[in-house]
Design brief:
Elements lengths: L2 H17 L4 E14 L8 E13 L4 E14 L11 E18 L2 E18 L3 E3 L9 E13 L3 E10 L18 E13 L4
Antiparallel strand pairs: 1-2, 1-9, 2-3, 3-4, 4-5, 5-6, 5-7, 7-8, 8-9
Length: 201
Amino acid sequence: MKLQQLLLPLLLFLTIMASAQRFQGGVLVGMNASQIDGDTWVGFYKGGLLAGAFVKTDLRDKFGAQLEIKYSPKGSAPGSKHPDYPSKIKLNYIDVPIMGTYEAAKNLKLEGGLSFNYLYKAQYFDGAWFEWDEEEGPNSFETAILFGINYRFFQRFDLNLRWNYSLFPVRSTYSGSSYGEGAWYNQVINFGLYFHIGPNS
C-alpha cells in the first residue's frame, strides 16, 4: 500500500473537520454482502461481519462530513446449486470511507464519497484455504465509490444501508486463472448499526 494514497484524503478530511465547530463519534457493527465483478460467479453470496468506529461533524445548512475506519470482509462465492460450490474467495480489508452527508428529511441523511481500503489478507477456498500468489492475487490497495442512506432512530442509533464499488480493478486481467481471467471489481452492500457516543449525540 502506498502511504500517500491514504494520507492525502485523510489530510483533506482533517482540514474540513478543523473548520467545523462540533464533532461526534461512535462505533459501528454490521454485515457485508459482496461479489466480485469479473470472476466466474454471479450473486451476493459472500457475507461477512464488519466492525469499526466513526467520527462526523455538521458543516453548514444540512451538510456534514464523516470518516470511518473499519474491518470489512469482501470477496465472492457461488450459489449452493453452482458446480463450484463451496469454493469461495475471501478478501479482508481495512476500509477508510470519507463521505459527505446531506439531511434530506428529519432523521434521514443521504451520503456519498470515496473509500480508501487496504487489503491485508487474501485467500481462496478450494477444498482447503490457500493464499494467493503475488502474481495472480489482488492488489493491496483499493479505491471505491460509495452511496448510502442513513436513518436515525431513538437518540443514539442509526441504521445504514450503503453500496460500494471499486473505481479501479482490484486485480488486473490474468490469463489462466480458474476464477476468471478478466479484471476484478468489488461490489459490496453494507448493512450497518451505528451507536453514537458522547453528550452531543
